[in-house]
Task: inverse folding
């Protein structure tokens, strides 16, 4: 869509933030409302009642997301900016998200890179970020590996094999034709970093951090079941300060890589998802080009790292709203939309 | 007791919050003081010194809780409202708590349902909340189970059996005559939800969430000891937003069930305690009809979910005080007491 | 150094806080800046760029810490107070830290006790704090033990043996001449307590609490690697309130022991590091005589316990700055420096 033309008709004093009612939408909409923006939640049938409980949401539209495009006209007329998140991409699919005719916060083009595990890894590598070794041929595997089925969501459909034999055996039980990648299983602890690429301040902010809480692997299963990796929540964490420069370096490296390969570059929240080994090296196995649900741990409270940049703790929803409001003030709203 | 008659003699401008010095009392008393209420801690002999360290507690009464009833007259003369919590119920027992002659915040009658594992489960079931399967006959057990000895406190006296054989063997070593229940051991991750049933706003607020930190099962035991489940602390967590509508639904369902079966219904803080399975279903194995210690993770800071209802983060102690103060303002204090 | 003489030349309206750029320096410097103090970060070559990202740091000096002493003159001329932390002690070594010619916040003499595992345990024992049983003769070991190699940093170089046989075998593979201690491996859950010894208020504050996040033992290793214990981060936790009096008692006992054995006593932040067993007893295996990195979990947000002493949540960096500013106001700055 032609954002510039669209924005010409926007009443910037009546901007509305719209997002899909899931994932991190409470945080996004609450932050927007606090900073004086209008708020609209687009809810899947059956979940609107929950979002109507909250007075900071001006309007809840309950609609089948298969017809999201049909809402776009009204939303645009209503001076709306769409804030994308993981569930939005999951619900509408990356192809539709690329073409959704609403001004969208951040760089929507990165969705295409995220949708393909191989392009994803290529982007990380290009950014100079250490990634797990990949294997094309199962019989060549010489260490523990994790297999990620294509389209696996929230950790479902992952499995681990301790060596080539176990891998070949486990692969034989998945559907013929299923696409998957085989990655070195890095031994260490998980840590997920939240960044914010700011056009207003011209910097990459290291904004927060979390751990994922996964069922059943984080429960007390006493070997009564096979481990599964379905994300059900998030837990706050902070990192050893001596690791922060490297985390910042990877965040900035990623931003530079996106600027080169996926114009107009990284805008707003993104995430790198890592394992920290016991030699303190950090291996990044995944990224997300938009707000991650892990930022929910700081909703309303703000993250410990946010105070490195601002007077008061801020959450990611407030940070997004802050960027929108300040971009408008500087006459540069267009810089943060695609 | 006749609350209405008692309250007639109360000077509502001099209300005092009184609680037993343990469990969540620091949070309760600090919240009360912040909102302008008087504060009294009733401490077991030997622990008064600790509570006297804190200036937000107006008075620390050190007394054997066996004679709590004898304090009641003075407390009532002093315009006091008792805030019950788990340690209060544990110390005085549910029968005495039912008859304690002090106006008590919340619905004290639910204590009787909590004291009986079978009534407890019945109430959850009536609320439409999924619970673990129970077994009466050990030999009929067809899956891993957890055995909860009656009167087990804070996880002590629980054990797990992986099948009927192990169960029968382990049961043979407990005391004859001990009462216990046998429940399906649900595989997944624990999560504990904090609700607040508000008479002032006519709603159930999903206020917070935590994980329990249990010794020794959450330590690094390397199979050097049998797992034990003694709660020693709590860790903050947030849930995947797509699970919140179901968590809210169960919270509201529970409130409705209590309104029907245990008049005058749910008032103030309560908790549902669950396992989340890797198919994202939530199985509730326990409830608490009053403030849980897990709310301590948000003391002074406020919970991420509290901002969905209020301008600023709030902790559960402040929330209770807010309800008292606003009930007084509306001339409805009696609605939140039993 | 003669602190009194040095302070005579200080312009107390232009005090600067200086610390080594690592560990907890962001928190320390941000807290100082908030309370109106100047801020200087001394960074190792290659990490200055990171600290220059933050506007609350007035000056970043990038220098080989081998020549820290040569900076001292200028820092003193610049009215500086050094805030020591674990990385400072690690980088310059305890002997140099003892003699560093800069007024240093807290009791620097405790460093010598910390440097020697045996003196460390003696100080804890003198304070009346339960510690793990030590073994001098490996063949006498009658329970699981942990072996700590002298100079092991952040958990690296620790190992566990389940009995005397395994111990003897594992010891045979370490370097001859390596010093180590053999301690009972206490089964339970770890918990780390943050205290603040305040001269201004004449009290020991229980200020916070955390868990360490260690690679790879807190990861999902599925027995694919030997457990290792390298601290990479920290997670917030709160304790069962009934344990707080004992935690407070140990904190105050430690402060009294230091006052007797290591004049001028405990000043500012310190930490006790424990295992909580499933009988709720607390065994302390380590202490730190200054700020610990675990306090980073509360940066900018404040800890749940800080509100027991102050109106608003505070982090440890702010607490230190608060103590400095209020010591100056009372004309007692010298009381908190060594």
Result:
């Amino acid at each position: 869509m032609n954002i510039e033309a669209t924005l010409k008709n926007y009443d910037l004093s009546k901007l509305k933030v719209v997002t899909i009612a899931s994932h991190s939408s409470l945080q996004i909409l609450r932050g927007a409302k606090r900073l004086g923006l209008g708020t609209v939640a687009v809810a899947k049938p059956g979940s609107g009642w929950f979002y109507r409980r909250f007075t900071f949401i001006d309007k809840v539209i309950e609609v089948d997301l298969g017809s999201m495009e049909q809402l776009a006209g009204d939303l645009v007329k209503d001076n709306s900016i769409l804030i994308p998140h993981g569930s939005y991409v999951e619900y509408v699919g990356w192809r539709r998200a690329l073409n959704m005719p609403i001004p969208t916060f951040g760089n929507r083009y990165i969705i295409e890179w995220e949708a393909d595990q191989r392009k994803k890894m290529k982007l990380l590598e290009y950014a100079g970020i250490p990634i797990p070794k990949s294997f094309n041929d199962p019989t060549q595997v010489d260490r523990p590996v994790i297999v990620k089925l294509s389209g696996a969501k929230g950790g479902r459909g992952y499995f681990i094999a301790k060596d080539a034999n176990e891998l070949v055996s486990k692969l034989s039980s998945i559907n013929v034709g299923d696409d998957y990648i085989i990655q070195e299983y890095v031994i260490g602890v998980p840590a997920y970093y939240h960044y914010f690429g700011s056009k207003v301040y011209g910097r990459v902010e290291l904004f927060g951090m979390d751990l994922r809480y996964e069922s059943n692997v984080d429960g007390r299963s006493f070997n009564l079941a096979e481990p599964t990796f379905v994300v059900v929540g998030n837990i706050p964490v902070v990192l050893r300060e001596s690791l922060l420069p490297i985390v910042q370096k990877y965040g900035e490296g990623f931003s530079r890589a996106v600027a080169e390969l996926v114009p107009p570059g990284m805008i707003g929240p993104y995430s790198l998802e890592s394992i920290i080994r016991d030699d303190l090296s950090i291996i990044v196995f995944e990224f997300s080009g938009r707000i991650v649900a892990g930022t929910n741990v700081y909703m309303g409270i703000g993250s410990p790292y946010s105070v490195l940049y601002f007077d008061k703790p801020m959450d990611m929803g407030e940070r997004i709203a802050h960027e929108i409001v300040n971009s408008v003030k500087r006459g540069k709203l267009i810089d943060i939309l695609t």
Remarks:
- The mean pLDDT of chain C is 95.
